[in-house]
Amino acid sequence: MSLSDPALPPALPSAGVATGGRGRWNPLLLTGGVIVAVIALAAMVSFVWTPFSTLYTDTDNLAVGPGVGGHLLGTDLRGRDIASWLMAGSRTTLYVGIVAVGIAAMVGTPLGIVAGMVRPAASEFIMRVTDIWLAFPALLMALIFATVFGASITSAMVAIGIASVPAFVRVVRAGTIGVMKTDFVLAARVAGRRGPGIAVKHVLPNIAGLVIVQCSVSYAIAILAEAALSYLGLGAGPTTASWGRMLYEGQSVITIHPLLVVWPGVAIGLAVLGFNLLGDGLRDRFDPRLAGR
Amino acid sequence: MNTPPAVRLQAVGRRFRRGRRAPLRPAEYVDALTDVSLTIPRGARFGVVGESGSGKTTLMRLIAALDRPTSGEIEVLGRRITGRREQQLAFLRRSLQIVFQDPMSSLDPRMRVGDIVAEPLQVLRRPDVPGSVRRALADVGLDASAARRFPHQFSGGQRQRISIARAIAPGPSILIADEAVSALDVTIRAQILALIEDLAARQELTLIFVSHDLSVIRRVCDQVAVLRAGHLLETGSTEAIYRNPREQYTRDLLAAVPTLEKSLAAARARAAYGRVGE
Amino acid sequence: MPSDATPDAAGNMTADMAPDLTAGGTAGMTQPSRRPVPRGLGDPVLTVTGLTVRAGALPLVSDVSFTVTRGQRVGIIGASGSGKTLTCMAIAGLLPPELTAAGSIRLAGFDRDMVRASERALASVRGRLTGMVFQEPMTALNPTMRVDRQIAEAIRLHRRCPRAQLGTEVLALLEAVGLPDPPRIAHSFPHQLSGGQRQRIVIAVALANSPDLLICDEPTTALDVTVQARVLDLIDERAAATGAAVLFISHNLAVVASLCDYLLVMWAGRIVEQGPVVEVLADPQHEHTRQLLAAL
Predict the structure, then answer these.
(1) What is chain A's pLDDT, residue by residue, as a tens digit (293 residues)?
(2) Residue A133 is part of a domain; what is its CATH number?
């Protein structure tokens, strides 16, 4: 019996056993990745080809069901091919993700880290400003932007992005405060590291998981917000393909032609699911403790 | 020969403000340290003993300039550190390092061990970082392959070794061990203590050992300061304090440490007193 | 139990500075006022046979068997990873779902084997036949509930107790564990008390229903040294007074030896040595026991 290191346990079950094998290529990452990839593919392809042009109205086949007149998924109230609109709409969906969530993360994360690292008085000040920011209605902001810059998807996205910043600030600040309390940050200070160095080397990697999850959450909100804005005419115009637009155009006839709402609804749901799973998967993938190595 | 002492504290106090209980009541204060004066000579093995709330952690942070005292002066290696900005403390960062208590939270879980040990070297802009990292890991008895792995892949005792490697890599002259073995099993404690002692001897370090465990302090330190509720109660050589404690509190502390002799005596008494063992 | 309560700088009462510690005293020393309770040759309170705990295919505890009789004090000692905590969890019915247990654990007064019992059945045992004291007093109590409510909850879960009587029982329990000013403590929240005080409350909760077996998993490891001695004394005294058997787990031989009669030494999931405390410590047979002794 080897007794060289009595305290070293013979073998501990790694986190992989307990958490069902989360790690390098975990099911979350794969599923989420596949869904997002499909959406991205549809978006790419739609630049060069869609079954019908999104501007084409098939006046002989208004609001028909799937398979009629060569329309794979049917047509909407104006005779536009649903499948084509879904494909083209995926562009908007991705655009929404990048612009809105990107703005929110890029602005909110540094602000949150600063709020978590400065003196309590300054931190409180930042949080009160954030609270006021949070209270400002996103819709109003979108309206202002639309008036000043003209209504378009981009103006809607920037408005939503700015409105999503407070959520990031709060979450990031909480995470930062937690990290700043640890002994390893103390050790870094003993080594001579100063604020910015600690923020980059220690805080950011340890709050990355929080930020990714918040991105997923904000993304879902952003897509639905875009849908609402498009309906109000503050976002995508009547000829711009957007799942949100499809949703709202179809909701008035939901009892007669339910499929008009189902197709974009399922697409939105899948996109939100895909990004959430991808976010969770990425968070786990980059956490060395869960990698199961 | 007048080498300045490693650390000198003069009438140091640290007061914390606590929130008001009501808007109209005055703010309340907690005095974590009151009027502490002591001198730690170079090359000493100095122990600071105290229980929770004694102020020993605050004292350690003040010496390391991780916190500022509300009164008094502190000198490290002959140079004043109180009232100085971080930019003026580069000499302190070069000469003083700390090994922390909790092996779980004192290493960044997101960083590889090699990067963790390299951090002080990088901040201090030392040359040959990989070489120093390898040497430091070897000094603490860890294989060079450990550098590629993450902290969670090591046991508590091994993580403390990594902490020690990080502390000695930049070649400090003062090493503070803050309850460095309290979170470890008794069997591992002896190993880590032996390691710390060995390194202190080989690298001619001044060792400041902070702990609540008297038996540990006795093994490692030649001088001891006893803290209680923020006050310095007594200080002197380890033997003097152990043989002849002046203060009642010190006597109580000594008496409360469980030792094998006492336990065996108690067990025998129980067995003889009519309590039938299995 | 005398206790010198002095307010600390924060205005909280800390009953942790004992003036009555003598230079040789830790738990179990001869005290004329204590009646010696004959124990050891009683009926078994706990019988563990061939306990094996696995994580998937990996065995973490292998073939552990021992018995605890009424009023007996059994200590389990080992380093981290030796399996002592898992053994204790299995006996308390608190194994995490991803671990599987095989073998047999029989508790007096419970007709089913605990290894195969359902969660509902186990819940009826915990707190009634067994009481548990864990290591970390900071997290063992609910921070949002006052102390009296927590103790009352432990009582009401297993016994019918009229409202009026509940208050008195809670105060009596607090007094029995040596807390000064029980009415004030009963009305406090955990964060207003010191570590030693919290651990005493945890012990009070564990003993609320006079269990037959008190399971302590490193109960004093997180406490200051002076507090440690007094809490050990408390466990000893309360167990003797209620006739409860004690299963005490630790990695510190001196602590275990000061309280227990019978010792089990675990390493790598197995019991490598066992016997009466005096014999094991005076004449250790196994290499690991010798290592543990040498570490002191």
Answers:
(1) 332 233 333 333 333 333 434 555 788 888 999 999 999 999 999 888 888 887 888 888 888 888 887 788 888 888 888 888 999 989 888 888 889 999 999 999 999 999 999 988 899 999 999 999 999 887 788 888 888 888 788 888 898 899 999 999 999 999 999 999 999 999 999 988 988 999 999 999 999 989 998 998 898 888 878 877 877 777 777 778 888 888 878 888 889 888 888 998 899 889 889 888 888 888 887 777 765 43
(2) 1.10.3720.10
Query: How many CB atoms within 10 Å of residue A56?
Result: 15
Q: Which residue of C has its CA nearest to A3?
A: C288
Q: Tell me: domain C39-141+213-294, CATH 3.40.50.300, correct?
A: yes
Confirm if B19 and B183 have CB atoms less than 8 A apart: no
Q: Which two tokens stand for residue C56?
A: 């998937």
C40 contacts on B by Cβ (under 8 Å): 275-278
Parallel, antiparallel, or unpaired: how do β-strands C44-55 and C99-107 relate?
antiparallel
The alpha helices in chain C, defined as continuous H runs, are: 84-92, 119-125, 137-140, 147-158, 163-176, 182-186, 195-207, 225-242, 253-259, 277-282, 287-294
Tell me, yes or no, whether A93 lies in a domain: yes
Q: Which residues contact B208 (CB under 8 A, 6 or more apart)?
A: B6, B7, B40, B46, B47, B48, B60, B63, B174, B175, B176, B177
Three-class secondary structure of residue A236 per DSSP: coil
Record the tokens describing residue A213, joined without a space: 């999850």
**Sheet with B206-211, edge to edge strand ranges:** B96-99, B174-178, B206-211, B45-49, B223-228, B231-237
**Contact check, Cβ <8 Å, A10/C269:** yes
Strand partners, B94: none
Residue among C134, C117, C53, C120 nearest C87 (CA): C53
Global pTM value: 0.79
Question: Which of these, C148, C149, C147, C109, lies nearest to C128 by C-alpha position?
Answer: C109
Q: Does B100 touch chain A (CB under 8 A)?
A: yes
User: How close A185 comes to chain B (CA, Å)?
Assistant: 8
**Angle of helix A204-231 versus helix A153-180 axis, rounded to 10:** 150
B170-203 residues labelled b (16+ CB within 10 A) or e (exposed): bbbbbbbbbbbbbbbbbbbbbbbbebbbebbeee
Which tokens is A125 given?
């000040």
Domain extent for A217:
30-46+71-285
For chain B, list the domains and their CATH numbers. 41-67+85-272 (3.40.50.300)
The verdict on a CB contact (< 8 Å) between C296 and B268 is no
Structure tokens at C252: 């510190």
Answer whether A183 touches B (CB < 8 Å). yes
What's the gap in Å between the CA of B125 and the closest CA on chain C?
39
Report yes or no on A17 lying in a domain. no
Nearest to A11 among C58, C79, C287 (CB): C58
The amino acid at A166: P
Residue A8 lies in a domain: no
> What CA–CA distance (Å, rounded) separates B217 from B50?
11
Residues linked to residue B210 through DSSP beta bridges, in sequence order: B48, B178
Q: Calculate ∠ Cα A258-A261-A265, nearest 5°.
A: 135
Q: What's the total number of domains in chain A?
A: 1
Question: Chain A: nearest CA to B270, how far in angstroms?
Answer: 31
ipTM over 0.95: no
Domain chopping of chain C, boundaries: 39-141+213-294
Cα–Cα distance for residue pair A78/A63, rounded to 1 Å = 7
**Residues 191-230 (A) with a CB less than 8 A from some CB of B:** 191-194, 197, 201-202, 205-206
Contact present, B208 and B132 (Cβ < 8 Å)? no
CB spacing of A7 vs C98 below 8 angstroms? no
| Chain C contact set for A7 (CB, 8 A) | 79-81
A59 inside domain: no
Q: Do A205 and B110 touch (CB under 8 A)?
A: yes
